[in-house]
């Protein structure tokens, strides 16, 4: 059976907040779309739930956290993102619960985005490829927090902090989903996405599997393959639209 064509991701928004678990999560494909958005004059900010401190076996967490934060900020700058925030939940053991939902709702009320970007919240990346607990916990909590942010009776302490409810999220786009519905053309920004991932050089070197440049190009070849033949207009990265026009 031929997969259904992917529609263009809506562009009738101005502010986006990308919420992911770790440094480099946005860079595994979505950063090329972020570069296209910022080039079009849209505002994008990043919120990292952890600092990725458990991600490098050869570095102690305290040392890795500093390095990975630095690489993430440099990576974001490549695609035009200046605002990068960290929540300091523990890498590898993120708990999907009210504490995380509250933190995310707080961020949504502060940033007041029209579009929220997150990473695959499904159990797998596809057949035979299990997703990690942090990605599942964060992605699902993002979906919950979008509703929480707009309800003044959930986490009323946020209103007491001066953060009024925000029900203005029109779209939630999920990167890396095994069930994509939409895509963003990245013919003009593919190289910026690759360069953004390459800023995570220490992490890529720790992963092994080839030179960082080779790994980055392989990541984006896979990311654009998900939309190949399903989207007109050249290279594209795919998203599942979890909230909004379907």
UniProtKB/TrEMBL annotation:
Keywords: Zinc. Gene3D superfamilies: LmbE-like. SUPFAM superfamilies: LmbE-like (SSF102588). Pfam families: PIG-L. One of its GO terms (molecular function) is hydrolase activity, acting on carbon-nitrogen (but not peptide) bonds, in linear amides. The keyword S-adenosyl-L-methionine does not apply. Signal peptide: none annotated. The keyword Thylakoid does not apply. It comes from the Bacteria. One of its GO terms (biological process) is glycoside metabolic process. Transmembrane segments: none annotated. This is LmbE family N-acetylglucosaminyl deacetylase. It comes from Kineococcus xinjiangensis. The lineage of its organism: Bacteria, Bacillati, Actinomycetota, Actinomycetes, Kineosporiales.
